Amino acid sequence: MLFIVGRSGRILSEIHPLWFLFIYLVAIPTFGLLYSVATPHGFRLSHARSGATSDIADLGSILEAALRRSFARRAEDEFVIGTQKLSLDSLRDSLHVDSVNSNDGTTLSFRVSISAEGIVDFEGERHLGWSMLVTVPEQATSAILGPSSVDVYRSPEVDFSQYASPFREQNEKLFALVFSQRNYGFGILSPAMALTYQEDLQLRDYLQTVRQSGADIGGDVWRMLCLSATVMTTLGSNDIVPSTWRARMLIASQATVAIVLAGLFLNAVAFRAAMRRERTSN
Description:
Helix content: 40-55%
Radius of gyration: 29 Å
Strand order of the largest sheet: 4-5-6
Number of domains: 2
Number of helices: 8
Distance between the termini: 33 Å
Shape: elongated
């Protein structure tokens, strides 16, 4: 074992040091591109305000409350699936909003989940559930000033092309019931999400925080190349910090590679200098 280690060490020492320098330089853009591809949302600025993250839970509760109010306005309607009829009032309590996120601060995405567990039998099953990934823009579509409140409306979007039949039709029906508003601008019935003025203000504050803080910069190739250069030169990660386990593992891997290559380069230089002195002395 010691012989193998010693033999390997001598082979590495005999390699020209410029090869290690070449690998060292090539590793910088390689890791930079790897950060952009493997962890597109794994980095943020160290001075990013924590409010963008901490507000997500509150924002999810706000959206959930808004959608339940929408259900309440249409409590007399029914959600029909085949021969089964589910009242919106019975589904309201099962509504849940999660996965609230914004990558660039211009749109907000969230998942709406609804369950009919224990409410109805459907072809021998005791559980029915639906899930939709909804996206709403930062800019409101319209606002209605009431006697004592202001309702702000946004137009939600869902890509139903990814759903297989018959789930596509079921989710489309549920989407129309959840997001259709009877008092949407001048009496128009259209898919919309209604928020109070204070709720709308919190949503806009969250999106603005995301934009200003640069909370998600993993997709910026040039920033990732700069990050790779600073990590490779063992200067740290500058003002960019990893926010996912995969990003942290890549940072640690590159730092290790940098130290190993630097050591091999210096070892090769020292070996060649020692061989030169030996030849000179002989």
